Batch of 3 targets.
Target 1
Amino acid sequence: MARPQRAQVLSLAHELCDLPLQFLRAIPILPNVTVAAVTGMIRGLPTEVPLGRQQGLARECVLNCDNLFTIPKAALGRYRGELDPESVARLRTALMIALDLEA
């Protein structure tokens, strides 16, 4: 697999599911990456980033920044879409809120 880019939405490469994930961060020499799950459960929270067809996904959904995961790079699957600059800015804000970081 090519090196994932930060704004990409990729699948979790697992035989039981095809869960879309937002790739957040990877240090090239480390074997793991940090991701956030994409979900159809839209609650309107400030820690959610709205996504949909504009980002290449099949339906309206959100990126949930309340639940971040570290997974092996090898678990990243197929390309699903990509965040536009506005969504990346919303992601930055949602992460700041979710992690209780000051601007």
Target 2
Amino acid sequence: MNAEALEWFVNCSTVADVKKVYYKLAMKVHPDHGGDEELFKFLNNEYHDALKILDGQETTDSHGYTHTYYYNHERESNIMDIIKSLLHIQMEDVEIHLMGIFVWVVGNTKPYKEEIKSLGKQNGGNKTMSVHWHSKKCCWYFKPHTYRSFNRNNRSLEDIAAVYGNKTFGHTDDSLEVQ
């Protein structure tokens, strides 16, 4: 392991910082993109270690609401798996957004409908992440199966992003990049 690898998450002070660094690095060191398998495994371990350190961290969003982050290895791994699977489909005119613990698939998703739906089943639709069509927002979303919302407000995706943060994933010149 090189010295640079040991300092990937040193300057990360929030969960959002850790996730941003992780997703940028994952696209570079993933074996499917010419990276080293051992380095990728090391990155995953460091990512989870960094998140564990931030367990219980409180942040205040732009609307003044306080949120507490609770580390959950299985949930974090499932989110990563869903995003990797969605990127593997290589959908044109589609963006993938990570907002909090939800993954949103936005854009011209109709040609990919069956592939998107199958990911919810492949990833243990009844045990891990379930996939749903949001008729008002006209997009797909993946959520932890155990997630229950008691707040039925009608927030836009922009409002959700403002509250929970947003990482956007897409394709550029046939290479994957975090936007």
Target 3
Amino acid sequence: MTSPEHESAVRRLDAGHVEQERLRERHTATIGTSAELRSYCRLGAAGEQVAARETWLRWVDEGRYRGLNAGPFELLAEQTLAERDQTRSERNREGQASSGLPDRTGRERDVSARRRDELSLLRDQIATDHDQEATDLDAKDDLSDRHTLRVEELRAHARAGRIRAGGDRDQAARGRAQAGRDRQQAALDREQAAFDREDAGTDELTGARRRGVGLKDLANEVSRARREGASLMAAYVDVDGLKSVNDEHGHAAGDELLKAVGGGLRRHMRSYDLLVRLGGDEFLCALPNVTPAKARQRFDGLRAELKDSVGGSVSVGFSELGDGDSLDAFVARADSDLLARRIG
């Protein structure tokens, strides 16, 4: 059963719809003179101001625009503004009337939708007439076609530009994806370069560092030991009888002996200890934070392993880094200790 408030709201909506029909008919009557308005605009655009003024006065005398002191364009603008205000007022009244209802019926929604459609059509018609009037003012009749063609050309150019922009965005996306792949490849290349640098500084026969890079690494170890106040031992290693093995059994046998010495040194040293092949049968080891007794114990184990595996041996001299030692003095003292042990 329909409540009194609901019936009152429906009556108000119907009354608003009737008023909206009246406004639309009034606007349609005004728009119906658009041919006369365009004639008036052409008179003004052609410089015939007297004829245009006489046309306007005749319209006023006929009562078409009685009480108005503005041209046809201002009249349409005022009517549009009045309709907009009327529409807003009606929407406010509709909201107030329906705010107390628990639910809006389908009929109310249909009425509101129909009115919004009608208002949209009126606004579209007003916008279309304004566009036509502006075109009539901007150019004479013989330039209208050219102007329209120019507008179409500009629109076509804009469409082509949007298509190109879409293609550019797609290309940019592909470029970003390729850039990501390039960055990944660059990271792999950097890793490979680091590996290559490391590999380039490694003696392929023994796995020890080559002399040039090895001595630089030893200088870094000396600097770190002094900076941290840590101890550092150097061991100068010489492979015994390598020349005799080469002469009697060939260089292949000598290489096998060097491989065995290099492998044994790495097994008896820690992963962060430094192993350098100085050349030929000479190696240099750097052992941080190791006492002289511990260092000698490590190389005693190496001698025993070499004797059991390949029947070879090594001579080892030691030195401990002092406060005033240079790199050369530090290494030379280990070499001197090796010679002294051989003589002794």
